[in-house]
Amino acid sequence: MAALQPDLPFVRSSPTSELAAKQAEPASHTQRRRVLDLLRGSIGLTDEQMQDVLKMNPSTQRPRRIELVKAGLVVDSGLTAKTSSGRLATIWRAR
């Protein structure tokens, strides 16, 4: 019988990527909820702003936001804001 694959995305040709996805799975639901709750309580935030407020690593926050976008719970607001490096970034908002 084949082993169950994790719900989180991973590089299919990389055993380490698959293992990392399996290990991250239990916390991903809580992390998604934290990102969604933050966006529901705001008028919209960039990824960088979410990371700052939540004290969440970019490699953790961004994939959770992407999952929420794919689920239709978070959308591009059509607005942008400057990041700390001066680049423009999308402002995301809860639907």
List keywords for this structure.
single chain; 95 residues; alpha+beta; two-stranded antiparallel ribbon; 2 strands; disordered N terminus
Brief synopsis:
By secondary structure, the chain is α+β, with helices and mostly antiparallel strands.
Number of domains: 1
- Alpha carbon gyration radius: 15 Å
The helix/strand series, from N terminus to C terminus, equals HHHEE
Largest sheet: 2 strands, antiparallel
Spatial strand order of the main sheet: 1-2
| Overall CATH architecture | Orthogonal Bundle
| Helicity level | 40-55%
Runs with pLDDT <50, length 5+?
A: 1-6
For the terminal residues, how far apart are their CA atoms? 40 Å
CATH superfamily, by name, is Winged helix-like DNA-binding domain superfamily/Winged helix DNA-binding domain
Mean pLDDT: 86
